[in-house]
Amino acid sequence: MPLCPQGTIPYKIKPGDNFAVLAKRYNTTVEAITAVNSEVNPDNPKIGQSICIPVRRSIVPCSPGNRYIVKAGDTFSKLASRYGITLNAIIQMNAGVDPSNLQVGQIICLPIRRRRTR
């Protein structure tokens, strides 16, 4: 994956992807994605190609080791189950976050110490 600039997340192109599809999925614009990926054809990126996608991240106050970047399909309930923690613990750590409106790329806190993976 490329080293993406601050305010973006890495993404690997899958079949059917183009910048318009990704812009809608990640709540951004084709222009914003194109600006950070100027070498990529926005209408026909290559499958397997790594790009950077701009996202709006509101960071809740927690240590970097407890931060989690929301991915497509994530819910507080699924995260609680995946990490063996209570739903209430996640809700308490994320005051002000609407659990019914999580956005891909949004940063939330999980009451566990997460290791960085490469």
Query: What is the number of strand segments?
Result: 4
Determine the oligomeric state from the structure: single chain
Strand order of the largest sheet: 1-2
Overall pLDDT metric: 84
Name the CATH architecture of the largest domain: Roll
* General shape: elongated
CATH class of the largest domain: Alpha Beta
Which class do the helix and strand fractions yield?
Answer: alpha+beta
Spatial gap, N to C terminus? 9 Å
Number of helices: 4
Q: For the CA atoms, what is the radius of gyration?
A: 15 Å
Unreliable stretches (pLDDT < 50, length at least 5) are none
The CATH superfamily of the largest domain is identified as LysM domain
* Strand residue content: 5-15%
Q: How many domains is the backbone divided into? A: 2
> What is the third-level CATH name, the topology of the largest domain?
Membrane-bound Lytic Murein Transglycosylase D, Chain A
Task: State the major sheet.
Answer: 2 strands, antiparallel
Helix content: 10-25%
Concise overview:
This protein folds into two domains: 8-54, Roll (Membrane-bound Lytic Murein Transglycosylase D, Chain A), CATH 3.10.350.10; 64-109, LysM domain (Membrane-bound Lytic Murein Transglycosylase D, Chain A, Roll), CATH 3.10.350.
What tags apply to this protein structure?
118 residues; alpha+beta; Membrane-bound Lytic Murein Transglycosylase D, Chain A; 2 domains; two-stranded antiparallel sheet; 4 helices; 14% strand; elongated
